[in-house]
Structures are given as structure tokens and as C-alpha cells.
Amino acid sequence: MFVYIARRIVYVIPIVISVALVCFLLVHITPGDPLVAILPADASQELAAQLRIAYGFDRPLPIQFGLWLWKAVNGDLGHSIATGRPVLSEVMRAVGNTVTLAIAAAMIGFTLGLLFGLIAGYFRDTWIDKVATSIAIAGVSVPHYWLGMVLVIIFSVQLNWLPAVGAGPGGSGAWGWDWEHIRYLILPAITTSVIPMGIVTRTVRALTGDILSQDFVEALRAKGLRETYVFRHVIKNAAPTAMAVMGLQLGYMLGGSILIETVFSWPGSGLLLNSAIFQRDLPLLQGTILVLALFFVFLNLMVDIAQAAIDPRIKRS
Amino acid sequence: MSISPISAISDAALQAEPATKARGYWTTVGRRIIRDKVSMTCACILIAIFLSALCASWLGLADPYQGSMIRRLRHIGTPNYPLGTDELGRDMLARLIYGGRLSLVVGILPVIFAFVIGTSLGLVAGYIGGKINTAIMRTVDVFYAFPSVLLAIAISGALGAGIVNSIVSLTIVFVPQITRVAESVTTGVRNMDFVEAARASGAGPFTIMRVHMLGNVLGPIFVYATGLISVSMILAAGLSFLGLGTKPPEPEWGLMLNTLRTAIYINPWVAALPGVMIFAVSICFNLLSDGMRSAMDIRN
Questions:
Q1: Can you give the pLDDT at residue B8?
Q2: Is A260 near chain B, with CB under 8 Å?
């Protein structure tokens, strides 16, 4: 097991460096000079030259990358151009809110997905299966930002039950797990949960169907085991793959929250990314993407290790 | 004179009726798809949306750019404006139909580009193997380290708003995914006997890939790409929704959703209409992809 974990970690190192390289280069694929975005239109040549030296843009790209990476490893992602605050603390504060949202959405989406998937797989080709697969396909096909709007229209505008935007009374103060705050979480969490719900349903349904058609299930039934025991075997066999899919989905929810956070003005990493893009706040843009991508890589690593821990077949291969 | 058993068998074989020609694989798949009601309904809806977008100027619709301050945000079902008007008083029906043009182009083109590039890369990586495989597939891994929504938005955000930039960023997002599928399908086919036979008869790698392998790997990749169109439509409209795609006053579903967001307190259901179009196209492509997948799975 330790060998497996060590191998996986070694394998992740080049990925992390390449991810950092992509984040670094993002700023440099901007047409022209990265400074163009932050300089006022009437800036003098001298000022531009001064800023270029101040930001280190006058050095060769590989050296710039090396310096940037060295600083990043030491926890310094530069300062936001818009607010002047350190990028890392800005990002970390926002990521906290995104994690809250992702966990709430995961609780809804994974529970429903597992439930629908198991039921649909067990009662394959019956009306129950048809209903569950229809819900699943609607979940993966719906433009989630639009679903967010529709939910706001129904529950905030028409019924006036839940707040439409923000993450708490009085704007976006500190988060707390009380009803006053959870009210704000319900609509964004439901909206975020539909895609993972659909994908988990589809995966688990396929897995259950495959497992039920295998010989060992026949053998279990022939032995006279009750259906609840057969069910337990199905769950045990479906668990590793289902877990991997759910881990990946959690990563997508963390990294892909920008659209939903924009709809609900949820003060997370997505909203931060949005403002970084439109204010052309390049250090913040770079830093947010780097942190989110590293989260995703880390989560994938955890999923691989957890999968190997519960499924001995994976380690051997 | 006795007849040897062997010649008797061969005589019987010669006299037997020639077997009826078996239907080809693709003919069978085609028949199975046509018999699938869900797939055919989806195909019809998609064709209707495509044709109406293509022929929008001949449908006698209102001008999608012509607004009016006195008829803003009319409700659905208003005479002359069957689907109401938007925040600038433009006819929603016309804008939804004209909007199909840009929305479909920006949603579908990236998948087509990614299909061509990804299939080529995957085929080369899978067939040649070795260092080339490592180089291509490890690069693909790097892009897999980003959630696709994040990658699309990061590239669009860095390149700046615009239709071309949206198409470029979405293509970059989908190429790795298609490459991975193409590579795994190719690796499955490359060691089969017929490829070995082609190699033994002296065919070069390019000929083998083009003549012998492409036809065998294209099916699964195509099905995967059809499913990707659904994701691509949502993401493309999402980029416009954020303000990273098309610019006003062009009619485009994502952008319309964005500009109508402020109207949800006045006329909510008109504001939700563009999303219905995105949803419809996306779900139809998803169901069509599912239908094709099960039609190609002849064993069942």
C-alpha cells in the first residue's frame, strides 16, 4: 500500500508543475503585453517601462516562471491589483465558501444519485427505471445557471420563501450553520447538485446492472441467500467505482462553481474568478486558477488512494 | 462404386442455397436507430431547430434587432408577440430563432474541431505507441488536471471576450477528452489480426491508420463526441452568460439569458425562455448519443 501511495505521489509531481506552467502561461497568452490590461490608456512609455521592471515582465519567460513558482511554493501568489491584498488570503477565504456550497450540494446530489442509481439498476427496464433515468438525463443536460434562475423565479420572486442572492443576512459576512445562513444555501446547493446527481445515477445504474448480471450473484441466490444479502454484495462491488466518480464530481463542483456563484452572488472562488477576469486582475486570476486546479489534483490523488484502500484489485494492477 | 463421405459433404455444400447476404454492421445500426422512438424524436426536434435557425430570414419573423421603448417585456401570449418581448422591446420569438445561429455554431464547432484533432492525436498515440504515446498522453493528463468549466473560463478569460476566443477555448477543453477516448479505442484495435495482416502485407503506418484502423475506431469516438455537444452547448452559452462570448446586440441564447436576468422580477417566464432552448438542444444531443451507443452495441 505504501509503495502504491508513494508511486501515485511521485506521479503527481510533474502534473503539479505542468499545472503551474499552464496557469503561468495563461497570463502570457493574453494578446500583447500583460501590462496592457492594467495600464491606463494614456500611460507614458516611462511608466510602462517602470511597471514592467517592477512586475519582472522584462526578464525572459523561463526565469519569470521559475521566480513565480518559487514564490508560489513559499505561499506568495503576489498581490491583487484591484484590492492590493495578498492573492493567497483572498483565494483561501473565497474557497471556504465554495467548499461549503460543494459539500451541501454533494450531500443532496450523491444521496439522490446513489438512491436513484441503485433503484434503477435493480428494477431495470421497469417504469421506475425509466423515471430515474429520465431525471438523470435531465440533470446532466440542464444548463445549471438557467436552473438557478428558474429556482430564484419560483422560490424567491413568486413564493418569496428563500433569498435570491448572497450568503447570509447583511451581505456576505461570516458563514454559520444556522437557519439564517442555511436559507441562503438551499437554492445554490440544489442547483449545484443536479449534474452530480445525474452522473452518479447513471454510473451507479450501469454498475448495478453489470454486477447483477454476473455469475456470482446467481450463485448467491442459488445458495438461498436473502435478497438483502445479495444487495449488500452489489453495493460492495459498486463502491470503488462509484466513489471515484463522486470524488471527481466533488472536484468539478469546487472548480466549476463560477456560473452558479455568479447567478447567486455566492461569495466563493467562482465569484472571485469572475471579478478577476472582468477587472483584468491578472495575479488574482492566475492565483485563483492555480489554487483551484491544485485542489482538483489533490482530490484526484485522494480518490485514487481511497479506491486502492477499499479495492485490493487496483493495487495489483 | 462407393462415394467417399468427404466428397458427399462437398457436393451437398455446392448444391446448398447461397446464404442470403448478411446485413452490414452500419446498416443494422442504422435500422436500430430508426426504430428507436426517443432517438428519432430528438433528431426531429434538432432538425427543426437547425432548419428554423438556418432559414430564419424567410420565416416572416420580426426584426430581432428592432427594439422599442414602449413595448418592453410584454408577456408570453401578447398579440403579435407570441413569446413576448425582451428588456429592449425586441420580439422574443424572432430572437430565439435567430439566436440558434450563433448558439449552435459556438456550441457545435468546438466539438467538430476537437473531434478531428483529438481523433488524429489519439490514433497516432495509440497506434505508434512508445515515446510518442507518452508525450501525447502525458500532455493530455495535464489538461485533465483542470475541471473543464474552469479551464474553459480560464482560457476565455485570458484571451478576452469574443466568439472566436470562445470556440478556441472550448476546443482546447475537448481535445484532451476525445484524444483519451481515441487512444484507448485504438490500443484495443491495434493488436487485432487484421492489422497484423495489413502490416505483414507491407502497408505503412499511415496507410494502416487511415485505411484499416480509422473505420474501426470512429464509431465509439463519434458517439462520445455527440454526447460532448450537450456539454459544449451548455458551456458555450455559459461563457456568453458570463459576458465572455458574443457581444450585444447579437441574439445568442446565453447572452439573452444574461441580459434578461434583471427582468426576472417583472416578467420572469420570458426571462427563462432562452434557457429552455439550450436545455432542449442539450438534452436532445444527450439522448441521441445514448441511442446511438445502444444501437451500436449489437450484442444486446
A1: 52
A2: no
* Distance between CA atoms of residues B289 and B286, nearest Å: 5
CA–CA separation, B289 and B39 (whole Å): 8
Find the distance separating the first CA and the last CA of chain B, reported in whole Å.
51
CA distance B55 to B19: 48
Which residues between 254 and 293 in chain B have a beta carbon less than 8 angstroms from any beta carbon of chain A? Answer: 257, 261, 264-265, 268-269, 271-272, 274-275, 278-279, 282-283, 286-287, 290
Q: Could you read off the pLDDT of B215-256 as tens digits, one per residue?
A: 888 888 998 998 899 999 999 999 999 988 888 888 899 999
Residue B1: per-residue pLDDT: 44
Q: Identify the CA nearest to B160 among candidates A42, A284, A21, A32.
A: A32
Q: Touching check for A144 and chain B: CB below 8 Å?
A: yes
CA-CA-CA-CA torsion sign (A10, A15, A16, A20): positive
The answer to whether B275 touches B268, Cβ cutoff 8 Å, is no
Residue-wise pLDDT tens digits, B129-164: 889 999 999 899 888 888 889 999 988 888 888 899
User: Rounded CA gap, A76 and A277, in Å?
Assistant: 20
Length of chain B (residues): 300
Beta bridge partners of A79: A86
Residues 6+ apart with CB under 8 A from A311: A239, A240
pTM, 2 dp = 0.87
Per residue in A206-237, pLDDT (tens digit) is: 999 888 888 888 888 888 888 888 888 888 88
Do the Cβ atoms of A296 and B146 come within 8 Å?
A: yes
B102 Cβ contact partners less than 8 Å away, ≥ 6 residues apart: B163, B246, B250, B251, B252
On whether any CB of chain A is under 8 Å from the CB of B145, the answer is: yes
Pairwise CB contact (< 8 Å): B275 & A256: no
